[in-house]
Design goal:
4 helices; mainly alpha; 66% helix; 137 residues
Length: 137
């Protein structure tokens, strides 16, 4: 695939396709959808971690932050799904949330960082990267 970026306002047109292929070049619009998905994944980390601090939603501020992050995460996921494949986007979103939450637990909550856990996290990251690289968008 050829990676050339038209102007931010531009979209992939027939001449933006690889000769002899049906794959459009990467556009600013597709990059923005991936950025929105990444931000949605970061908000998923915020709400997953926030659940730990809500104490069953009995603490007002952590509960408000957690619920806001939940809403923001789902809204951004929905926006990203306008252009990204459902299966890929959902897997990337949950993968970012999973990896980020595990890393937070290891770094901030003294959860174990065994070799086996780190290998599993690495496999999740490789899976996310593979899905992104194989995505048609």
């Amino acid at each position: 695939m050829i990676y050339c970026l038209p102007s931010p306002a531009g979209t992939a047109s027939p001449q933006d396709r690889e000769p002899g292929g049906d794959d459009p070049v990467v556009t600013w619009e597709s990059i923005m959808h991936w950025i929105v998905l990444f931000l949605a994944g970061l908000l998923e980390v915020v709400w997953a971690v926030g659940l730990k601090y809500t104490e069953g939603f009995t603490k007002l501020v952590p509960s408000a932050v957690t619920l806001s992050a939940m809403a923001g995460s789902v809204i951004l996921l929905g926006l990203a799904l306008r252009a990204l494949p459902l299966g890929t986007a959902y897997a990337v979103w949950t993968g970012i949330g999973t990896v980020g939450t595990v890393i937070w637990g290891i770094m901030m909550l003294d959860e174990p960082a065994s070799a086996a856990r780190l290998v599993c996290i690495t496999m999740i990251v490789l899976g996310i990267a593979g899905l992104k690289l194989l995505s048609p968008h």
